[in-house]
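Re-run with default settings, no changes from the original entry. Doing this only to confirm the output is reproducible before filing.
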Amino acid sequence: MTIREIQKKVADALNGVEELVQGGCKAIAADSNDVFFEVKQSLEAGNVCILVDTPKVTRSASGCGDGIPVEMQLAVQCAELPDLNRATPGHLTALDAAEIVAHALDGETFELASIEQWADERTRTVTATATFGFAPILTNPTKEN
């Protein structure tokens, strides 16, 4: 798989998690064409925005055929503007969303490594990040996959 394919599949999978959808969350791949607009739009609508970041990639072994064995750390950031988001009954907090993301993704492919939360006074956002480790075979994005 390519990095872009991984990001899109994770975002699509999270957009199918009923608890997240019902809680006012939308997942976006960080390489989306309009990522900054989509994040801003989601936050200003009073929702939790889930950003599937570009993973950190390191080689794990020698090449194998048409791919490269790698280890990846994937961060999934759940951000909110608490003043807007928490005013809407039924909406999840960023930390709630990160915990649901952890349960949704942790399993055979992804292994939860950590959950961290912080607040940014300047932007008035709260962000909780769930980080996962996994080991795919990275394929060439110029070839048909």
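The chain has one domain: 3-139. Residues 3-14 form the longest helix (12 residues).
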